[in-house]
């Protein structure tokens, strides 16, 4: 079924000449306008210039650099440098994603035992030292300690305690013995007054500083003890 559409007799028909005239007016109007790209064009971005603050220039002369030595603080505190390096390390290091990676990290840091468990872990240098050097410490008393007397008796007790100590290395035990040697050598004046032989071979620069907390212990440190009086039976 076909439907024919015809213009109504009362509807005015638009002539082709009128359409051409209007199209020409539109073209003429558009040709006189500026393109949108020119009207809304962005300004070129400003390129930032790099300024070197640490260049070897003369500077502004605000501060007098000749007096820097007068305001020197002496030794430099390295705590801030260590904290800065720690922050840099933490910023790059990623935390462990699971418990297994955390245990591996703790093992590498020495917080956990290596498997299989070894009680002498980390004592590789001590493994090469003979056991007798930990126990037979009398040879370190021969150069300076007397063969008998109160100092000899005291040092023998010290050697017994050191020989039973499983945590000290041989070097630490020898250093412990040398400390007593230097201490007794510093007290040679007291030993001479007690008619005891003097200690030879001590360190002349040895010094001992003992700080006593009197607030904690009170006057009991310097207060002489009174002898106890025996009760008299009536």
UniProtKB/TrEMBL annotation:
It comes from the Eukaryota. One of its GO terms (molecular function) is structural constituent of ribosome. Residues 1-45 are annotated as: Disordered. It is found in: Mitochondrion. Pfam families: MRP-S31. Keywords: Mitochondrion, Ribonucleoprotein, Ribosomal protein, Transit peptide. The keyword ATP-binding does not apply. GO terms for cellular component: mitochondrial small ribosomal subunit. Residues 1-11, 35-45 have a biased composition (Basic and acidic residues). Its main location: mitochondrion. Belongs to the mitochondrion-specific ribosomal protein mS31 family. This is Small ribosomal subunit protein mS31.
